[in-house]
Each structure stands twice: as structure tokens, then as C-alpha cells.
Design brief:
Elements: H1 4-9, E1 18-20, E2 24-30, E3 33-38, E4 44-50, H2 57-72, E5 80-85, H3 88-92, H4 117-138, E6 143-152, E7 160-164, H5 173-181, E8 186-189, H6 197-205, E9 208-216, H7 229-240, E10 253-262, E11 269-270, E12 281-283, E13 287-291, E14 294-297, E15 302-306, E16 317-324
Parallel strand pairs: 4-5, 4-6, 6-9, 7-8, 8-10
Antiparallel strand pairs: 1-2, 2-3, 3-5, 7-9, 10-16, 11-13, 12-15, 13-14, 15-16
The structure holds zinc ion (ZN).
Length: about 325
């Protein structure tokens, strides 16, 4: 049987793009995009993606192992599954991206960027998700999920966390329960739309979607996959449509975004150390950032920072501030 990761890295598609195994059908939809369908009816249409940032290797390896087990028949497939390795050229280069960050481009935002492999790929993935969810619905799989797997660049006080896209409808209890059992340390609730892959699937297809940050990125072959055991077990349960294993350890913390720090002026200064860990706390009144005409201060008794980055282009987000969710 073929190896999705190896064939994607080598740029070598399978000779025949469709195949039948005794227990499932598979279809190669394009570089790094593989659909697996069980022979029996099922209720869930699940997208699991990794490698939207090409150097975030551990989740790619984890996903590849899972696919290998499904193809080998050693793990039952009880959902319709689309596996997506997001950005193969940047995976080959072991870079986050080659031209621009693909995870800002979804929901048609690729049109605002200079044309590159990444804008073309974002558009292609949008179409593939549309076809996958549409065909799955026609086959009776109407419950839609999408988990996009990442690892963070910087260190974090919460090692593993999920980012829930903003959506006007409530998040499904089933997804929140799964996220709890997946061993995440924290969940962050966005308060505004964005160009992420999961915001796109949530908004356009009403999928239950979450971006998962699963620790720190290392090159292929150097990841200690044992630290991903809980998320791995949760993904195994997901594809077999079984209840996820019981959570161990401390309970999950829920955070809401309370400020988006935007770099709007050339004189923008971010008063957060470039080495600050995600979820570092700042006290009320602290001046987070300054620029002509605008000062960002901590407004609540305490706020914690996520993804601080002073070097973003004008008009983009230089960081998020969060509080514990009430
Ligand atoms: Zn990432």
C-alpha cells in the first residue's frame, strides 16, 4: 500500500488515483489529499488536515501513521474521511510557508495575496472540501467535522491548545467533549472571523472545526511522538467513531479573545518580549502596544498573550489578548 507522506514529499502520486481494498475505497484527489470511505453507511464526514504550515511535522507524521493503519485494515474506519497534507512544497522545504502564510488565505482571502503556489493551493483545498462534504452528505454522512493539526513556533505555558473559529451558532457538545478528551490544556474562543482553514470549514460548511496546536515543531523524524499519545488516541477514536478515552490530568481551561492587537502604523511598537511564551500574563494598565493615534492597554485584571509578533505587515494582527472565559 502507498505511504501518503512519502509520496507527497517525493511529489509522486499513485499510478492509479482510485483503489479498492477489502474494507474501504480510497481516492487520491491531488497532492497530499486522500479520501477514505468505508463500504457501510456512516453519519460523520471528517476532515483531518496537517502541514498547512510545512515545518509543523509531528502532526503530519501522526496523521500518516493513522492513515497507514486504516489502509492496512488494522484500525476500523467508521466515518467518511478526508486527509489533507496542506502545503507540500513548504513541507519539502521544511518551511512554514514559501511565499505567504496559507492559514490567512481561506474563505476567498487568497485573492488579496500575490498569486503563488500557496494562493492556488488554498483555493484548491477550498474546492476539495466543498466536494467532500457535498458527496458525504449525499451518502448520508451529514455531521461535519474538521480538525486542523499544527505545532506552535514559540514555547507556551499551555503546551497543547485548541483555537475555535468564531461562529454565530453554538459549538457542538460532541466536539467540545472530544477536545476535552484529546488532552488539550486550553481552548481559545475567537471573537471575529479569520482566514484560517478551520474558520472556512466552520463558516461555509457549518463543520464543527478546531485548530489544534500540539506542542513544538521539529524536523521530520525527530519528533517524540509519545508526547502526542492522547491526541493520537482521540483521533483513533474519531475515525473509528468510538467514544474517546477518558481525560487524564488537570481540567481544560477556556479562554476568550478580548483584544486583537493590529499593527496599523509604521511606528507601531509592541511592548511584549519576542521570547514571551504564549499565555504569559500581563497586569491591568500595562501598555501592550503603541502607535500613532492608538495605545493598547490591558483592560481586565489580567490578560494573557497569544501569538505575539511585532514583525507583521501593516494591517495584520501582532497578537491576541485573552481572559479566562466566564
Ligand atoms: Zn501552524
Amino acid at each position: 500500500m502507498f505511504d501518503v507522506l512519502a509520496q507527497t514529499l517525493e511529489g509522486r502520486p499513485p499510478l492509479n488515483p482510485v483503489g479498492q481494498l477489502p474494507h474501504l475505497d480510497w481516492q487520491w484527489h491531488g497532492e497530499g489529499v486522500l479520501e477514505l470511505s468505508p463500504r457501510h453507511a456512516c453519519e460523520k464526514a471528517v476532515v483531518i488536515s496537517a502541514g498547512v504550515h510545512g515545518n509543523e511535522t509531528a502532526p503530519i507524521e501522526l496523521l500518516n501513521q493513522l492513515v497507514a493503519e486504516l489502509l492496512a485494515g488494522s484500525r476500523p474506519l467508521n466515518v467518511r474521511l478526508l486527509v489533507v497534507l496542506g502545503n507540500p512544497p513548504s513541507m519539502r522545504a521544511n518551511k512554514r510557508y514559501l511565499h505567504a502564510d496559507m492559514n490567512r488565505m481561506f474563505g476567498g482571502r487568497h485573492a488579496r495575496f500575490d498569486v503563488s503556489d500557496e494562493t492556488v493551493r488554498a483555493q484548491e483545498l477550498e474546492q476539495l472540501l466543498a466536494e467532500f462534504y457535498h458527496n458525504a452528505s449525499a451518502a448520508g454522512a451529514t455531521q461535519r467535522f474538521h480538525y486542523d493539526l499544527h505545532t506552535a513556533i514559540r514555547g507556551s505555558l499551555h503546551l497543547r491548545f485548541g483555537l475555535l473559529p468564531f461562529q454565530p451558532r453554538p459549538y457542538s457538545a460532541e466536539m467540545l467533549h472530544w477536545l476535552e478528551q484529546a488532552g488539550l490544556d486550553a481552548l481559545v474562543y475567537h471573537r471575529s472571523p479569520g482566514g484560517t482553514f478551520t474558520h472556512f470549514s466552520s463558516e461555509v460548511f457549518q463543520a464543527e472545526s478546531c485548530t489544534l496546536e500540539l506542542g513544538k515543531a521539529l524536523p521530520f523524524g525527530h519528533n517524540e511522538l509519545s508526547q502526542f499519545r492522547q491526541i493520537r488516541q482521540a483521533l483513533e477514536a474519531l475515525v473509528s467513531d468510538l467514544a474517546p478515552p477518558q481525560r487524564r490530568g488537570e481540567s481544560l481551561k477556556h479562554y476568550q479573545v478580548v483584544q486583537d492587537i493590529i499593527r496599523e502604523q509604521p511606528d507601531f511598537v509592541l511592548n511584549i518580549s519576542p521570547e514571551a511564551l504564549n499565555f504569559t500574563a500581563y497586569p491591568q494598565g500595562y501598555i501592550l502596544a503603541e502607535q500613532s493615534g492608538k495605545i493598547y492597554r490591558v483592560e481586565h485584571a489580567e490578560e494573557v498573550v497569544l501569538f505575539p509578533n511585532p514583525n507583521v505587515a501593516l494591517g495584520l494582527r501582532a497578537g491576541l489578548m485573552l481572559t479566562l472565559k466566564d
